[in-house]
Amino acid sequence: MRTRRFSALAAALLTVVLAAGCSGSGSGSPENATGTAPAQSGPVKLTYWTWVPNMDKIVQKWNAANPDIQVTVSKQAGGDDAAAKFLTAAKAGNPPDLIQAEYQHLPSFVAAEAVADIAAQANQVRSEFSEGLWNLVTLGTDGVYGIPQDSGPMMLFYRADLFDKYGIEVPKTWDEYAEAARTVRKKDPKVYLGTFSSKDPGSFAGLAQQAGAQWWSISGDAWKVTVNDAATLKVAGYWGDLVREGVIDDMPYFTPEWNKALNDGTLLTWPSAVWAPGVLEANAPKAKGKWAVAPLPQWTAGENVSGFWGGSSTAVAAASPHKEQAVRFATWLNTDPEALELLVKEGAIYPAATKGQSVLTEAPGYFAQQKDFWQLANQVAATARGFTFGPNVNVTYDAFKNAFDKAVEAKSSFADAVNAMQEATVADMKKSGFQLAQ
Amino acid sequence: MTGTKRSGARVARAGAAPYLFLAPAVVLFVLFMALPIGYTIYLSLRRTQVSGLGLGRGSRREVFAGLDNYAAAIGDAELWLGWLRVLGYGALVLTVMLGLALIFALMLDTAHVRLARFSRIAIFLPYAVPGVAATLLWGFLYLPSLSPFQGLLELFDGEANLLGAGTVVYSMANVAVWGGVGFNMLVLYTTLRAVPREYYEAARIDGATELQIALRVKIPLLTPAIILTTVFSLIATVQVFTEPTALRPLTNTIGSTWSPLMKVYRDAFVAGDLYSAAATAIVIAGIALVLSFGFLRIVKNRAFGEG
Fold this sequence. Notes:
By secondary structure, chain A is α+β, with helices and mostly antiparallel strands. Helix content of chain A is 45%, strand content 13%.
């Protein structure tokens, strides 16, 4: 789920205030470390930081059925700022019991010892999830650090009405996509087929995954960092060439002008994830019924692969005094059929649990004309490949924004920007003392 | 003997009372100033040491780092590039903002100006708008596809972009000026109102024009207030954070380390390295201190007639 950037910004500013508050209170965690629930009377109270819409309604169901474990939802702005806020709270010793953790943030939570290893309990529900998604919460180790909640397989969203108007076929390969981009510019110089966002490393990571990139991997007791592997350089070079040629726009996603372009038909496609309908509905209400979805264009004709943009798990804070109860709630939330149905209907997420996908029958309202929306999504999800995220994704993503901002502005090499990401990532890991493999 | 004794007792009594009165202030100062600063200094001397993959329990320790964080902060080119950007931005903001504030204050103070009350409030009002709100407001006005000025700008330059690499600093300065002129004008204006009217009468009898009164009488009298507003603005400029942070999502031209304070935020909450962020924060505080006291020292003679 993406939220609007400005609410994220407000959260960022709040984080500063919060951090200032935390440094004052010192390490005042009341009852932690051991993880065993102290003998007490009355129900166990759990707090849960999440930004899934209507989560309070879903939690009500649990609270009604479990009077001895009462969960309170604290709504977050989401994104990188929610992760920063959680890490700060964990360091200050007063984190929530449960947290929505995006897959790319989970390794940094684990490295900071902010989330608990819940393998003993969580392994019982392992079979509910696909191998690829489960790897995202184990990080390829013996531990389990969260229960997968949703995933974001990537697809190509496009303006079906305007594709007809300009006489463009839905591109099956990235070569066709580039050709279509040129055609659109020729037919109407005010219109772009797509835009490259230098503000959304998650989108770029997903596209790189599709091409087969592996930014981090674990070999023995050391990390291998290959952000600038051949697949990533290929993706970067492709978009860089199109931006320099001027056939692809360079405005960032989730900005007011991007909303405007989505609405007024000057932007025809958005390679995005399965959660895109919610964003389009909120940001481009005027174009309802005009967008359609297809699998991502492929690098090689006839291939059928995708990547992930976003997706998150439910993790338990290492400092929570009620870990056992927290895991019980997290497994219910993400594997119970009733909860999954609520997550889909009320929370508008694409569930990670395999059986949750059968709940998805009726296409989202914004895509009412595309009856096979979920069948298509399920097909794509089965072909999406992710990669292991490293312990300092934040640094890599920050480097992405800075380097690609510059590259887009100066129309300079995107490959250099990818190399800058690699250097920043390696330098940061070296500084902290991580073992690095060559 | 008795006299000495009694006076001694009085000293003791008087000795307790001031501390009692002082206590709330001291407690607040210690709790909310001294302790956080102390903790920041403590953090700045430490760092995390990861071993191996950094994933298992106990693979991450906090260790003493000595002055390493300071060495890294001072040796980081990005920080000094940030200072350079803030220097250019600050020179712009300070001169334009204080210049306008002075001109407005002088204009409002002349006897004949119409709608003085309205103008005063109109100029002051932007100060009441929170910085983030003001920046987003202006941000929407700057965005090429939304800006109402865009058509006008394109008459002069087809590629005009108020958020472009060359223009973004002016756009940012404009937000700060818009928000800050009112406050500074009010400080200067109140000082002017406190000047006895007889001075101006005397000047007029001597045949001075309004302009001459402004330049020869009012501005010299205003000097301490101008210095005060300059120091405040200087400190605020060194700490610039809100404007670039709020504009950043709208443009490709502002990096996450555009200003020194943004770098501190980036290090602490994006990279998760509180320790080097703390060291950089101390370095920034030191530079702010040197700048403001340095400025005060330079202008001391003029302002307060000392030395």
